[in-house]
Structure to design on (241 residues):
């Protein structure tokens, strides 16, 4: 059985969400209030990101300059090496923009990790926005449907690990075989009775995945026939046991 690891990027691989860092630097001064207002009006992740990017009066080069300064979570470089040495396929997920993934990793000499994310472009009006090549027609929330990527691998009979921290990781946590969660995602999993392993650094993740029985536990969970592992979930629906 093939073993696949999907990791969220913003706030998981990075120590701070890269979009939030850009909102701090380039967005309106009261951007959290602006975002809450958009959410209260019914807009969701994909639309809110596009609205926020449209407020930026900066060049692509200015964004890159900021992204180059952002730190990553402790232990990620070593975790990448662990996955490579132990036969785990590591892929990154982002509801943010591919420019963030490419820039942050390039600063650390990493250019061999595949990722799924949204594409930063200028719209016809000259404002920054995103293209969403990984949007799913049945998902109204996200530009990049993370759970769909996991489900496709599950359908191949593969065992899937997911690592995340935020709201856009909720659906992925419902279909993964083993979940590592921190921050918001950990609180969400706890509230929804979704089994997870808590972590603070990638050293914690490596330590758990290095245990002698980890592969056995992962494959046993992958073999269980849960509906939550083959259907696209809704982020606020109860977990299916």
């Amino acid at each position: 059985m093939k073993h696949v690891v999907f990791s969220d990027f913003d706030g998981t691989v990075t120590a701070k969400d890269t979009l939030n860092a850009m909102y701090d630097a380039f967005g309106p001064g009261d951007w959290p209030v602006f975002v809450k207002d958009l959410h209260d009006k019914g807009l969701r992740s994909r639309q809110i990101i596009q609205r926020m990017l449209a407020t930026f009066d900066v060049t692509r080069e200015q964004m890159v300059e900021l992204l180059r300064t952002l730190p990553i979570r402790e232990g990620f470089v070593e975790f990448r090496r662990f996955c490579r040495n132990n036969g785990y396929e590591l892929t990154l997920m982002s509801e943010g923009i591919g420019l963030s993934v490419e820039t942050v990793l390039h600063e650390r000499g990493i250019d061999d990790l595949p990722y799924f994310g949204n594409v930063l472009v200028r719209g016809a009006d000259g404002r920054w926005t995103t293209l969403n090549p990984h949007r799913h027609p049945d998902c109204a929330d996200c530009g990049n449907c993370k759970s769909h990527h996991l489900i496709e691998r599950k359908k191949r009979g593969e065992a899937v690990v997911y690592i995340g921290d935020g709201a856009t990781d909720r659906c992925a946590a419902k279909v993964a075989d083993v979940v590592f969660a921190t921050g918001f995602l950990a609180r969400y999993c706890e509230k929804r009775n979704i089994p997870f392993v808590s972590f603070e650094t990638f050293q914690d993740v490596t330590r758990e995945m290095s245990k002698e029985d980890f592969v056995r536990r992962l494959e046993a969970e992958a073999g269980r026939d849960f509906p939550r592992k083959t259907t696209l979930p809704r982020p606020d629906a109860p977990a299916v046991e």
